[in-house]
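Translate sequence into structure tokens.
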Amino acid sequence: MSQVNTQQMGRLVAAGSVDKLDEAVNILARLEALHIIDYDGSEEGFSLGSPNPSSEEIGKVLVRARSAASIVSTEGPDKPVSQAPIRKILSGDLPSRIDELLEASSRVDDLENEISSLQEEMDNLSMVVPLGIDIELLGGYDSIDSFVGTVSDSTAAAEVAGSSLFFQAKNGNQTIVAVFCRSGDSATISSSLESAGFETIALPEGTGSPSERLEEVRSSRDALVSEKSELTEKIGEWEDSNGEMLACGLEILERDHDVLTAPVRIAVSEHAFVLDGWLVMSRAEEVQKELNSVCLYTEVTPFEMEAGGGGHGHSDHTHHQEMPPIAFQDRNTSKPMELLTDAVGRPAYGRIDPTVFMMVTYPIFFGIMLGDMAYGLITMGVGWMLIRNSGTNEMLRLGGKFLTYIGFGTLVFGYIYAEFAGWEIFPHHSHNPAEALSILYPSFDYYHFWHASLPLGIELAFPFHRVTMVEDHGNLEHLILLTIYLGVLHVFLGLSIGFRDIMLYGNGHGGFGLVCAFFEKGVWMILLVGGFLFAYGFLGPSDAEWMLLPGAAISVSATLMLMWTLYNYHGVPFPINIGLAPIEAVGMMPTVISYVRLFAVGVVGVKIAETGNEKLFEPLAHILEDMSHASTIDYLFIPLLLIGWLSVQFFAWGLGVFSPNIHAARLHFVEWMRQYYDSSGEEFKPFGLNSRFVEVD
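Result follows.
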């Protein structure tokens, strides 16, 4: 199938003798080709299978390995390793090493609790030490109540005590008091102490001098802290020695456990088993050939979409066709863009996969916004570093490629804009180091090497100066117009894709075919064209005024047809449609205007860099130009100006990578995909060994 479609799926049903079930599971695990449909227990005479008896022992080791992995870092090797030595270590001393780690970690947790408890006791003791009163004398009397705490007004506290026994001491900036009174006077004393800002403190437990007890507790705490430090160091050494091996061992244990417990997902009877699942049709023959050695019966049925059954809408009560999971096409160059598609959700079966489209449009949108050669090179460099250091991390490798793509788009548009680190290469300014890059451009006498005026007010030029302030030579207004036109084309493409999907697979409400597609998407396409003609006739040059009337007529007719769409295909009562359809139609305008952000975001970013160049780099260049007359203060300013300029540049780059990504994603996910996308597809997850760190034999 084409790269704009997901892979064709088929349904596999296989049956065999129950004593061959383990062999069948092992074959499927090795092939990694079948998305198993878990048996729901609905067939009479069949029940869920039982896990392999050895799974219990594997499960115990796996639980301990997972616990160990939660304690230490488990970064695996940069390249997959052979399975045999890992299994040898797993059957050797790795489990005992894991037990040692778990014991050390458990002891560290206990020590932290004990240290916390002793620290709390130390805090309480340190508060009462200045009073010089033995611990057992601070409370616990039968006919006497004690108040021990801090006060904000010691004089008022002393007056409150009156004839009661009163002690006072200083603990840093705090005033500690102890008041002992008859139980009958307790309420009065308590109320009066509150006016002096009294706050009670927790009394320590035990007997004897609080200072001596404080030293004992401090000594015990220090011993525990020392023990904890030794254990923490031991855990760190364990991680250095065994972390990589733990990651590999954990992967093998996960594999084995999945294989050994897989029978609980399969229907079995007393004598037979039945496998059910989805597979990619391109591997159907391979899977059948392998399973035929252990199964008595195998059958693969290519999935055929029922007419009008391609929708997953919540309002679809008449079509309940079970849909297969979604497998992307085997890709290489465009595979990083699957990260974007998966962020929204996989497309419904049969629908257009937007991945390849975004391979083209996403870097273009991003490049239009950031559009600076220096930032493009930096972004590509970061992407290259991620790829180089990704090792076995597929996600990191794809992320690096993604950055490389958008960085390349930024580099290309930076060349078109003639921008480098916020400088415009043309025209030349003083202290403009980017001027040296003019050798990358053809020599020319005019401001533009090439310029073309096209229909509909389109102005193209090279270089395309989007931020220049030179009169009659800037292209900022032209860029605004181009982004609107780009929005019209992008939205029209989305509607065209939606037209195709509905015509072939339905609208999610049971409707399908050419007529349904026309009213669901064709009407919007007509509205978009009519609205464009009307807007250009109204806002464009005087010779385009003839577009006003046709544009208005097309827009009105499309709005009337939209009323029928809402009534016939979405069940909205017709009286409501009279007001709703015009509102929906007007909603197309902000969708297109939203693409103006392609110019706005980029201009903001380049102005930040330009300001840094003017306010920081130019003064730095002045000082460096005339070092013979530079003062001591000037020498001090050199590193400050340099650091400040670099900080502004990296801020502009960081903002440039972050903000344009948000806006490019919005234009694709919201404005474009909304026109056609159904994200109800389930990810294809084939049962298998999922090798990352350890090779599959």
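Note: Residues 311-319 have pLDDT under 50 and may be disordered.
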